[in-house]
Amino acid sequence: MTSQSSELNYGTIKAYYAFKGFGFITREKGKDVFFYFKDVREESDIFEGAKVSFNIVNEGRGPMAKCVTRVG
Fold first, then answer.
1. Separation of alpha carbons 59 and 70, rounded Å
2. Which are the contacts of 9, defined by CB distance < 8 A and separation ≥ 6?
3. Alpha-carbon distance 62 to 43, whole Å?
4. Distance of CA 52 to the CA centre of its chain
């Protein structure tokens, strides 16, 4: 079962593995969160150190970021 938070979260791209198709975001509040590149709005805007906004989805394996968008 999937549950999505409507709360917008903010963080920084901690790791970006374009060749593997995923990465990690360090959240302002809470633990790091995993994301797939398919959930990034504009892939060309994402790089390590970029500030992003995102929603959190719990899909059974733990929290994941969806709708990842670069801010600033």
1. 23
2. 27, 28, 29, 30, 33, 53, 54, 55, 56, 65
3. 23
4. 8
Tokens linked to 21: 């198709």
Number of domains in the chain: 1
pLDDT tens series, the chain, 72 aa: 455 566 899 999 999 998 999 999 999 888 999 999 999 987 677 899 999 999 999 978 889 999 999 997
Tokens of 36: 């797939």
- Residue 8: how many other CB atoms lie within 10 Å: 12
Decide if 52 contacts 13 (C-beta within 8 A). Answer: yes
Q: Domain range holding 63?
A: 3-70
- Of 68, 72, 60, 57, give the one whose Cα is nearest residue 24: 68
* DSSP conformational letter for 40: B
